[in-house]
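Section 5.1 Outputs to date
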Amino acid sequence: MKDILIGPDATVTLHFSLKFDDGSVIDSTFDREPATFVMGDGSLLDGFEKKIAGMKKGDQGSYTVLPEEGFGQPNPNNVQQFSRNDFSADLELAEGLVISFADASQSELPGVVSAIDGDNVTVDFNHPLAGRNIQFDVDIIDVQVNTES
């Protein structure tokens, strides 16, 4: 039987880990059930999908995903200033606190309180992994071709 290569719309089951350059683990499935997704369904960023395209069952790999391929570079326009009065009086604000906001389309948009200076609150809406190189380790468990049209 011919090996099925990972390509568009393939169902892929894999173990993965995401690590920073210093080796600290961001996320990993190696100690739990593997992840299954369909290529192109948005479960993995394009930069990560490009790394595994063409792999087959049993293949393993370790890749560095640069910010431009992964979570992007931080955008200074995604850092916003708010007044303390913009938040509920009973909300205990602290640096590092993640707060859920609603964007223009009422979708959830998480922001991280990055600074508090008196009545001024700075909230960073950049992805927490923006600007970071990510070490992407994969072990391909299975690849299936989707035959539905």
